[in-house]
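Need residues for this backbone.
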């Protein structure tokens, strides 16, 4: 089972080719809404760190 976040860099280029490959290899993907909230804790950590440095 594969999880993709539908971020533009991950889906924009060769989307059909990637989908065809996943189908061919019988790899299932979790449904994920486009522009859904980012669930990656690393991204949230970078955002918090960036805010901290911009404050002062």
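Answer:
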């Amino acid at each position: 089972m594969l999880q993709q976040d539908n971020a533009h860099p991950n889906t924009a280029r060769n989307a059909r080719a990637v989908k065809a490959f996943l189908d061919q290899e019988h790899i299932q993907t979790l449904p994920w809404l486009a522009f859904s909230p980012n669930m990656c804790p690393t991204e949230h950590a970078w955002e918090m760190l960036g805010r901290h440095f911009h404050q002062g």
